[in-house]
Amino acid sequence: MRVLVAHKFFRVMGGAEVFFFETARLLEEAGHEVAFFSTKHPDNRESEFSEYFVSSHDHIGGSYYGKVRALMSAMYSLSAKRSMSRLIDDFQPDVAHMFGIGSYLSTSVIDACIEAQVPVVMSCNDYKHICPNYKMYHHGHPCEECKGGKYYNAVLNRCCHDSLVFSAAQTAEAYADGFTGRVRDRIDLFLFASSFMAEKTSEFWGEKSFEWRLLRNPFSPSAAHEFGSGDYVLYFGRLSEEKGVEQLLEAAAILPEVPVRIVGDGPLGPLLRAHAEHAALRNVEFLGPLWGSELDRVLLRARVVVVPSVWYENFPYVILQAFAAGKPVVGSSRGGIPEMLGGGQRGFEYPADDYELLAAAIQRAWEDRVLSESMGRAARAYVVDEYDKADFVRKLVEAYAEAIELRACGV
User: Fold this and answer.
1) What is the extent of the structural domain holding 379?
2) What element of type H or E holds 98?
3) What pTM was estimated for this model as a whole?
């Protein structure tokens, strides 16, 4: 099968890009032909398809003229459509798979596929398809004020990077898509990694208004794992507001005898370190960003991993990494996290924003070694059994075939 994959970035910026590149890699390993469409950047990976990539615009910085161009591009990019059409003519794909296209490529690339009669599948790893703010979170709390097409609330709340200009650009794009139905009505099949995101999309768009399937993101568990032991509680990930690390520090203050290690960096890093120092949290240590084997060593020495997110997490890779290492997870009740914890089989769930109950869950995981080991074993078995590469590719190709059939039937 010939598959055209499109994403706004062609360099790793986060989990979305890991998913994009891994999907393409697995397709190629399985013998499928893959073409790429993205934006230009000096740090991009090399690609034989880079001649088709388009320039991106700065929505926040730059000149006034540049911001206006970025706003217009976010709403509809004719240059992206022309380049996509040229790639379609040259590559002749059987199906197009869209990942994150908002703001940089725009939905014009979908129109290029429709005009060329190429079936379209879209993987949604954030909430950009239903809300101008892809996290549905701003200024300290989840937000659904744009439900019912009330996208103007994104401007009133300055919910996109706390920027009026960027929020206006995202709102304009949302209204353009909403009026035309370019996303909901022109995508043949949506793929979600969590039932939570599918259900939230149904709340915004209406049940049975779109075709979708559940497809968990690919993941390859490492061989190294250790059950029932560990010297500390571990958080690893981005240090930003929506990740809830402040809640973890409040819980650590309640549990001075429990060592807590924090791995990562981000915009909230300096404030979190200052908070820990001011509160004299001697049980908390910031290790900075760690990757690869360094992160693996720290993870294997943890007794439990904490995922205290306060936004609607879809499918956090950190949970799968913890599971693969044989570690149970203390996770908040937000988004797709409860699904991954399996109703208490693989970890401890607590109500998001309640640091006292977070502390109670951590204490239980820390003190009950037998239960933590049992959960760790169940977690390890889960990722080994459920995240088979060949099974992922098989299900993905089945989704492509279904999209082709839906387009042929005019559904």
Assistant:
1) 232-386
2) strand 95-98
3) 0.87
